[in-house]
Amino acid sequence: MIRASLTAVFLVLLLSCACWAKPNGSKNKKPKQVVPAIECDVRAGKINVSEFIVKCPAHCKETKQQVYGTGVFASISSICNAAIHSGVITNSGGKVIVRKMAGQNIYKGSNSNGVRSLSLPKWRESFTVSVGKPKKGVNYPSTLDYVPSRPTYVKTSQKEDKSVTTALPATAAPEPTTVTPEPTTTTTTTTAAPTTTIPPPPPSTTRARAAAHKVRDAGLRRPEAGSAIRRQPSSPVGPVFNRVQPAQPERTPTMSQSNPAFPRRDWPPPAFPRPDWFPGARRPADVSYAVPDSGYTWSETDTPEITARDHRPDISEFERWFYNFGPYPPRSTDSDGSHKVPLDTTHTKVEPVDAWKPEANLYESGFSMREQDPVPRVPEPVSQGDPNCKVDLAFLMDGSWSIGKRRFKIQKDFLAEVAQTINVGVAGPMMGIIQYGDDPVTEISLKSYSNSRELKSAVDKIMQKGGLSNVGKALSYINKQYFSDANGNRGGAPNVAVVLVDGWPTDKVEEASRLARESGINIFFVTIEGPDDNEKQNLVEVNFVDKAVCRTNGFYSLPVNSWFALRKAVQPLVKRVCDTDRLVCSKTCLNANDIAFVIDGSSSVGTGNFRTVLQFVANVTREFEISDTDTRVGAVQYTYEQRLEFAFGQYNNKGELLNAIKRINYWSGGTSTGAAITYAAEQLFSKSKPNKRKIMIVITDGRSYDDVRAPALAVHRQGVIAYSIGIAWAAQDELEYIATDPDKEHSFFVDEFDNLYKFVPKIIHNICQEFNSQPRN
């Protein structure tokens, strides 16, 4: 009894231990997450998973893979560069969790962590990125399912009731074949088989070719099993032109009714097949001997002539005449009475074959009895351009890497549309293009193309250079090199430079723009996706647009919110650059003046010194651009009286003007400077143009016999800028009365006539400094 109890207790303890004991390794550990690695160029849209984790390699920032959006990115963005842009990883790489979502209506571009993201108006799918730390309970795929880059090839169904959608192979079907060699041709006969299937097309068959074959073969029958297959002898040898066609069987009386689907006539068919364009009902006999339509007809160049007899007793007289003499030349009759039809053996042509229609008409089919001579093309009249928009226009296009290939193409389309709109021509606007990146490069000079059509073609061929966005270098380039006579600068047309910039420049533009403006270049800025408030801290130069443009009144700047809205700026920009009256920067200190010299011819001057004074006048004049639309010069000589030597615009050529100055004769007499100033105001400045700066330079060697205060004050009120130059015995107080304030900038004194030349640079500098210091608003 005791032994039985002990045994029971022992069994109970043994079972309990067995239940409590845990087998070795029974505790399942969570498997480690496998993170698939990707390359820098992998886009989120290429991965067919809604949420996944990936590992990005290092140095993706240097690959310049495109990113679209900020925070929420379009699915065409690079996953790794989007993660760097968002700050999820650094350029050294790391793990990233990607979560897809619905598409957005707009993706805003920005610059963050050294990655420039671009804007996009709309995309079908979006994604976000987060730190690659897997969440509890979430299993991410260890392998990624990629969307194929091209749609898969759909094989043609083998059902007999469906049309053939691919071309027949050039070789025979892979059944047992018997090849019989002949002297000139090789015929391949395929033995009959219980079931015959057309072999699939080779992998190189393109979809476009298959579609074309589907149209051509739609009304054809497959060749019956056991029918002969051969290539047309005259077709070129090659995979494109090979056509598999049933060979014509031997015409024997026993075969006349061998195929019930194609009943035969009793007369033997002619050696020359009946043409498909024949107007009349097609007979079954014609169909039975016709090969399947291959889509092309081939002219037989290896056969000089074809013999044909008229064995058609049941056709009408018109049909008989048409068949014998219709579209072919009159046929010579041989001794045996056969008609020989010569063929044109000079050409081998491939022509598309129209589908045959029973009701087809010869004249409706486009057939002609003889080939007409080509009508000579009338040359298109060459446009001379829009005379109302006569400007020399240079576009500075952004070729930096930040713009991307797609936006560079948008930029070229914009320039091509501008070229079409402004109507380029020698009598109107001439247009050139400079592409800038690290350094500027001339793509098209001003004299390269004289019409919009050729210019558009040249714009399409421009390739992106890459680099930074150094606009300052580009502005210096156009000022020093581009607007030159060698590049086609016409001189009489305003110089206009339009800068296209993506975001902001990567160098300073203020100094280069100032020098360009002072040279007469009207600078426009078209800023696409300019910096927002958060991005202004990244600017090399704040307010770069106002520092660069010709005037800050808004006329010379066009901000564009998106690259996809750039096309809308074509018309406003063209309207502005063609408004020559408002291109104020074309007027420089050297080409926008009416200058009057008031010269003392009193007896105290003397003949020799008077020639020195005239040389001084010529030296000052030589520094200006002389024409009716540029600077004009007039001269008055005075003693007690006044004499007009020449008026404004009387000499519009610099050479003629300098010769006129040399021809001024010394008068001699007293000194009435006040009266001379009044005379110059009446004879010269009263006829000055409104857009000209009026400048008077008075040269005297002594005190005036009359008052100079009132006349000087009168011309000052008329807007005349007066300079006074005294020599020897001139009165300093009178010089200050005559000169415009401040006196020290407009009044000069020399002891001797021979020292007059020293003041030429000083006077020119002061004139230009005053001109360029005018307000730019």
UniProtKB/TrEMBL annotation:
<comment type="subunit">
    <text>Binds dermatan sulfate and chondroitin sulfate.</text>
</comment>
<dbReference type="InterPro" id="IPR050525">
    <property type="entry name" value="ECM_Assembly_Org"/>
</dbReference>
<keyword id="KW-0677">Repeat</keyword>
<dbReference type="GO" id="GO:0007399">
    <property type="term" value="P:nervous system development"/>
</dbReference>
<keyword id="KW-0964">Secreted</keyword>
<keyword id="KW-0272">Extracellular matrix</keyword>
<dbReference type="InterPro" id="IPR002035">
    <property type="entry name" value="VWF_A"/>
</dbReference>
<keyword id="KW-0732">Signal</keyword>
<dbReference type="Pfam" id="PF00092">
    <property type="entry name" value="VWA"/>
</dbReference>
<dbReference type="Pfam" id="PF03815">
    <property type="entry name" value="LCCL"/>
</dbReference>
<comment type="function">
    <text>Promotes matrix assembly and cell adhesiveness. Plays a role in spinal cord formation by regulating the proliferation and differentiation of neural stem cells.</text>
</comment>
<protein>
    <recommendedName>
        <fullName>Vitrin</fullName>
    </recommendedName>
</protein>
<keyword id="KW-0325">Glycoprotein</keyword>
<feature type="domain" description="VWFA">
    <location>
        <begin position="392"/>
        <end position="577"/>
    </location>
</feature>
<feature type="compositionally biased region" description="Low complexity">
    <location>
        <begin position="165"/>
        <end position="196"/>
    </location>
</feature>
<keyword id="KW-0524">Neurogenesis</keyword>
<feature type="domain" description="VWFA">
    <location>
        <begin position="594"/>
        <end position="763"/>
    </location>
</feature>
<feature type="region of interest" description="Disordered">
    <location>
        <begin position="228"/>
        <end position="268"/>
    </location>
</feature>
<dbReference type="InterPro" id="IPR036465">
    <property type="entry name" value="vWFA_dom_sf"/>
</dbReference>
<dbReference type="InterPro" id="IPR036609">
    <property type="entry name" value="LCCL_sf"/>
</dbReference>
<dbReference type="GO" id="GO:0010811">
    <property type="term" value="P:positive regulation of cell-substrate adhesion"/>
</dbReference>
<feature type="signal peptide">
    <location>
        <begin position="1"/>
        <end position="21"/>
    </location>
</feature>
<feature type="domain" description="LCCL">
    <location>
        <begin position="34"/>
        <end position="127"/>
    </location>
</feature>
<dbReference type="GO" id="GO:0030198">
    <property type="term" value="P:extracellular matrix organization"/>
</dbReference>
<dbReference type="InterPro" id="IPR004043">
    <property type="entry name" value="LCCL"/>
</dbReference>
<feature type="region of interest" description="Disordered">
    <location>
        <begin position="153"/>
        <end position="207"/>
    </location>
</feature>
<keyword id="KW-1015">Disulfide bond</keyword>
